[in-house]
Amino acid sequence: SNNSQRVVAFDNDNRITEFRVDGRHNFQVTSDSKYIIFFNIKINNSKIPPIIDLTKFCSTNEKGNVTLVFRDNKLRVSKELLAIHSSIFASMLFGDSVEKDKEDVEIKDVDYEDFIDLLQFIYPCLLDISDRSVLFLLKLAYQFKMESVLNKSEKYLIQSEGIDVVKKLLFADQYELASLKDYCLNIYPRKCLLQKVKSSPEFTSFSAKMVAEIEPVKSSSKPNIDVTKFCSHGMGNIILVFGDNKLLVSKEYLAVHSPVFAAMFYSDFAEKKKEEVEISDVIYEEFLDILQLIYPQSLEIT
């Protein structure tokens, strides 16, 4: 029947415990009541990971090894290897912690396969960082304070084109990656970046401190400016109008520094004979900064 709906469910021994199909699949029932299912499978990645020789993580000196327990999995590893790369393991295995003299040490809230990949990464030429692996490498390296892994992961994230800038910023926030944070804050205008962060699903995961750093830099209060220094000592002055603000300036000085003003004041433009000239779409305070910049010793570039 096209209305039947069944699923396939397996127990821990890979035995089928439930079977279900729906009308989207073609199926038929044979004489011995077995289902034959025809469906399409899309293979996203056909690369099969190699079988890992776990003995390479052990020390040749058996006394220098410890067994790490990840729920149902155990892993024999070298104490020295872990201690060299992780200050957490150095303290745990060689400090005054209770784990120091234990044969088996339980590692909670860590995925067994992810930890094996982490070990492969700290062994030379065994694992490359990828967009997939960098996520758990960061998490574990931060948890166990593996500075070399953190640094390499941070460098990878900076050059990666496959990870969105919002996620990069979140990683920088969660794992205290200063260089990655500075990179993200510099490649995007702050307003655009803040909008992307606030509209993303990850927004609630950002710290208040990071959100404050993403906020556009507000201009500091400027000292009072003596606008009379922009006038001509002779008759060559004109009033520029910026909305509700007016500014008396020297025609000659503007013309020397700007071909646009030179044409406006000394060519056949309508503004040539006007006493007041409206300057549209220009902010008054920003134009003052421009004038201070072209007047000697008035303003430094920042």
Strand percentage lies at 5-15%
Strands ordered across the widest β-sheet: 6-5-7
Percent of residues in helices comes to 25-40%
N- to C-terminal separation? 75 Å
Query: Number of helix segments?
Result: 12
| Number of structural domains | 4
Please characterize this protein's 3D structure.
It holds the Pfam family BTB. The chain is α/β, with parallel strands linked by helices and about 300 residues long. The chain has 4 domains: about 10-40, no CATH class; about 55-120, 2-Layer Sandwich (Potassium Channel Kv1.1, Chain A), CATH 3.30.710; about 165-215, no CATH class; about 225-295, Potassium Channel Kv1.1, Chain A (2-Layer Sandwich). It contains 12 helices and 10 strands. The strands form 4 sheets. The protein has a 3-stranded mixed β-sheet with strand order 6-5-7. The chain has a 3-stranded mixed β-sheet with strand order 9-8-10. It has a two-stranded antiparallel ribbon with strand order 1-2.
Task: Spell out the key features of this protein.
Potassium Channel Kv1.1, Chain A, three-stranded mixed sheet, alpha/beta, about 300 residues, about 15% strand
